[in-house]
Amino acid sequence: MMTAVLLYDGDCAFCSTCAHWLQRWAPARAEVVAWQLADLETLHVTVAEADAAVQWVADGDADRDDDGARAAGPEAIAAYLRTAGPHWRVAGRVLAFAPVHRVAWPVYRWIAAHRHRLPGGTPQCALPSTAREPGPGPGGRTAP
To answer: For the region Disordered, what residue ranges are annotated (predicted)?
Structure first.
């Protein structure tokens, strides 16, 4: 059985909204966790990597990058979708398809740069994580 984690920015309202949407509408065989509440050391993910883009770590082997075991940004989203229901698996394969993939990263970067202006976003989302005020994470828990 696959063990997988999708890490997102729990300090960003837009990112949290997207992560909760995925959990609700595209449930997968993966945990969806705010990186601020995750044991990044065990997952072999740095704070800089987690802060830069959504991260996917599967099968407990964070050092492998084949078979979707480790991915970031749209590749991470594609890997997550490939573990969800049949329709979502197709969407994950399409997102990983080379022509789509070439467009996915620029779109992902644009969304990340403008997430504070998107639905569910707040002005706090525009700040780099080091400039954000620490606050309660998902479920009211305070991030470590």
So the answer is: 121-144
